[in-house]
Write a structure and sequence with these properties.
Radius of gyration: 17 Å
Oligomer: single chain
C-alpha cells in the first residue's frame, strides 16, 4: 500500500506575530520605535512601519525567534506579577541579576542571546 504524506501549509503567523509584538512592546511597555526595531533585529524603518500598519506577509526565522522570546518574557512577567503595571514596569527597572541594568537594557544590546538571557532569568524565577 502506498502511503502519501501530505504536507499541510502552515497558517501565516507573521501578521499575528507582529500584532502581538506591537501590542507588547508598544502598548504595554511603551517603547519608542528605535527600541522596537532593535528588538526585532533592526528592520529598516519602512519595513517596520509597514509591519506596524499590518502589511506583513512573512518574517524571517530570526525575527520570529525574537518575537517568540518577547512573548515568553511577557508571559513570564504576567505570571510573576499579578499587577499589570508592576509587570510592565519591571522591564525598565534596574536589576541586580543583570549587573544593575534593566531587562530592557539587556535586551536592547541587540542579540538574540540577550533576549534569551532575560527569558532564562524569568523562567528560573517562575521555577
Amino acid at each position: 500500500m502506498d502511503t502519501l504524506i501530505k504536507t499541510q501549509q502552515k497558517p501565516n503567523i507573521a501578521p499575528v506575530a507582529i500584532k502581538m509584538f506591537m501590542n507588547i512592546t508598544g502598548a504595554e511597555w511603551q517603547l519608542p520605535e528605535k527600541a522596537m526595531r532593535t528588538l526585532l533585529g533592526e528592520p529598516s524603518r519602512s519595513t517596520f512601519f509597514n509591519w506596524r500598519a499590518g502589511k506583513v506577509s512573512s518574517l524571517s526565522k530570526d525575527t520570529l525567534e525574537r518575537i517568540s522570546y518577547i512573548a515568553g518574557i511577557y508571559k513570564s512577567l504576567k505570571i510573576l506579577f499579578p499587577n499589570v503595571n508592576q509587570a510592565n514596569e519591571w522591564v525598565k527597572k534596574p536589576n541586580a541579576a543583570f549587573n544593575g541594568q534593566s531587562a530592557l537594557e539587556v535586551m536592547l544590546a541587540g542579540s538574540i542571546v540577550d533576549l534569551a538571557r532575560v527569558r532564562r532569568y524569568l523562567d528560573a524565577q517562575r521555577g
